[in-house]
Structure formats: structure tokens, C-alpha cells
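Deviation from plan, reported transparently: tetrahydrodeoxyuridine complex.
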Amino acid sequence: MTVSESQKKELVRRACEIRKNAYATYSKFPVGASLLTEDGTFFDGVNVENASFGLTTCGERSAIFAAVSAGYQKFQAVAVATDGAASPCGACRQVLTEFAPDLLVLLVDPAKPDDVAETTLDKLLPGRFVFPHKDK
Ligand code: THU
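Because the crystal trials were delayed, the predicted structure below was used instead.
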């Protein structure tokens, strides 16, 4: 299934917008993510930090956990908005690949919303871990 240009624009817009809700009081590095399901629904998430730093949840994982909690398990694309258009961390790559190994990934710095980098999760996470006994 191909992600349309208008869906890409909407993913980027939503990721930039939701980023304003990030709770990044320690790192001062807010992250917004927007995920597009197979049927065209969007789920957004932000990083939520904690005084006990290791309890922080990344924006990408907030978005996918919200989507899975709502009953969605098939995804087409994610947009991630950060300063410097940073790429998802290894933990988020592994969580995203559980549901969408070839997910389209859009990276954007909200200060340059027209400058969107495109990649795919299989490029970002070659050799992903797959549980050997997983049911097909
Ligand atoms: N962070 C994300 O939300 N996503 C990533 O892929 C990498 C890092 C967050 C975690 C923490 O709140 C802040 O960015 C700095 O690491």
C-alpha cells in the first residue's frame, strides 16, 4: 500500500503538533511521533520523561502503544519530529518492527517542516530480532 503525499504531509504536521505535548523536562529534547495505520487512522505520541530517568518512554513507543491498545496492529508509516530530525532509537526500532518491519519512516525538524527525510525501518534495523518460535 502506498502512502500518499497528503498522508505524508498530515503525518509530519501531526508529529510536529503533538510534540508540543512532550514531557521532556530533563532532557529538553521533545519528541513527537505520528503513526499511520493500514486503514488510514493516525495515532500520535510524545516522549514522557520521569525523575527516575530509565522509566522514560519515547514518542514513537507512546504512539504505537496507543495504536495497539486501540486495536490496530498494521501500520504504513511513522513521522518523528525532533530538533535535528533525529532517527528513532534502537529500542523504538525494535518495537516498531514487531508490527511493521518495512514501515516508511519520515524524519523532520519542526523548524524546517518542508525538509523531510524518508527512510524505512528495514534500512534502519537490519537483522532485527524475531522470536524463533513466533506463530505465523
Ligand atoms: N527519545 C524519543 O522519544 N525517541 C527516540 O527515538 C530517541 C529518544 C526521547 C527520550 C528522551 O526523553 C529524550 O528523547 C532524550 O533522549
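The CA atoms of residues 48 and 57 lie 5 Å apart. We consider this an acceptable substitute for the interim report.
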